[in-house]
Amino acid sequence: MPHQPRSTSQLELNALFASVQQHFRDVIVPLWQGPGWNADMALPYEALDAAHHPLPPQRYRAMACARQLYVFSGLIGQLAGAEERAAALFRSLQQHFHDAEHGGWFYSIDSQGTPLDRSKDLYTHAFILFACAHYWDKVREPLVESVLNATLEVIAQRFTTNDGLYEACLDQEWSSLNTGPLQNPLMHLAEAFLATLAVRADAPVQRALEQLCSAMHRRFIDPEHDVLMEKPLGAVDNWFEPGHQFEWYFLLESSPLLRGSPLHASLDRAFAFTEQRGVDESSGAVRAMLTLDGQSKDATQRIWAQAEYLRALTLRPDSEAAVMRQLQALLQHSLHAHGWYECRDEKGEVSRRDMPSTTPYHLATCYRGLADYLAD
Q1: Closest Cα to residue 152, out of 91, 195, 116?
Q2: What are the sequence ranges of the domains in the chain?
Q3: With 131 labelled, which of 67, 139, 200, 268 sits at a CA distance of 20 to 30 A?
Q4: In this model, does residue 5 exceed pLDDT 70?
Q5: Please, what sign has the CA dihedral across residues 231, 234, 235, 238?
Q6: Cα 182 from Cα 365, distance rounded (Å)
Q7: What keywords are assigned to this protein (predicted)?
């Protein structure tokens, strides 16, 4: 039975969402099919300027390649050329970034394709796992699943610590760089584990995900405010980021496996505090970095944080008005006819006009959450 709109306001919300989806399809995606694509390297450029010219390439990152693989995987069957582009990105991950000698994937290559930063970071490997899970779900090719399995094996064998957490970065040969665990790579690893479990039953991955979330609650949650810190508790110069609070909240709330866990309960309790301290009431802008006493470490308003707040609101109770407000804010303040504004400063003035190849991932995940919300 077709979905019946609940109210006039939802009709307005549907129309607004249709406009941002069309903007994504007609404006943003073509940037990376055309001027943002280096056909010789079969890789996206790191960023385009406001006139759609590639910024002079100094590096290409495996993480950026993987994020674009996710975006184009999601468009297979909906957009002409998406399957071919996803296949090219998948091949490039292996061709340019895989370390045939030591295993795993390099962080970056230079403009000529030579390994540049040879370190092995968890953030990169999490995104490769995430992208391969989504791509394999669409194509079911054995080679894609073999790369997914190889990534899982590397993460389990190389990055794990003895407390359910994972090192943020290791050197090329897998020896320690003493980085310890950091929040952001661990969040994207949880996201990648969830993506894997969405496409196949996998008991070891489920166990690793549950252990990871338990360890995050134990090591990263501030006991007074229930916010998730960026570094483990007790670390010098620690802070929290509202955008990451909202991102974690969505992952936990949307997962039947994780909903109701201690980590989810903390992020649920902290939601109002995060909004109060981290969201500008008049504009809906999300502040970048805060100390626990509410002092701003960085008041930059980044489009990815706006998208994560909007996505999180779709899972809050009685959220229709808030979702509408934030979707309007995204459209008015972050999107424009020729692309998007990556950052505004604390006064709301545009502070970055370049458009990184990594940002469409955040918009794609946000719009996927909105689509699910409107389909309920």
Answers
A1: 195
A2: 60-320
A3: 268
A4: no
A5: positive
A6: 22
A7: Isomerase
Query: What SS3 state is found at 356?
Result: strand
**What percentage of the chain has pLDDT greater than the value 70?**
98
Whether pLDDT at 277 is above 80: yes
Question: Within 24-121, where are the H helices?
Answer: 29-33, 62-74, 82-92
Place of tokens 């802070």: 239
**What's the CA gap between 165 and 219, in Å, rounded?**
9
Distance (Å, rounded) from C-alpha 326 to C-alpha 350?
18
**Taking the mean position of all CA atoms in its chain, how far away is CA 105?**
19
Q: Which two tokens stand for residue 149?
A: 């399995």
Q: Does residue 1 have a pLDDT over 80?
A: no
Does the pLDDT at position 340 exceed 80? yes
In single-letter form, the type of residue at position 90 comes to F
Residue 365's closest CA among 89, 19, 24? 24
Element (H, E) at 109: strand 108-109
Q: Copy the structure tokens of residue 376.
A: 């309920």
- pTM exceeding 0.85: yes
Residue 239: count of CB within 10 angstroms of its CB:
18
What is the per-residue pLDDT for 10? Answer: 85
Q: Which of helix, strand or coil describes residue 338?
A: coil
With the C-alpha atoms ordered 277, 286, 370, 82, is the resulting torsion angle positive or negative? negative
Residue 170: exposed, middle, or buried by beta-carbon count in 10 A (0-12, 13-18, 19+)?
buried
CATH fold for domain 60-320: Glycosyltransferase (1.50.10)
**Contact by Cβ (8 Å): 353, 341:** yes
Beta bridge partners of 60: 109
Distance CA 254, CA 267 (A): 13
Return the pLDDT at 6: 55
CA–CA separation, 252 vs 212, rounded Å?
Answer: 12
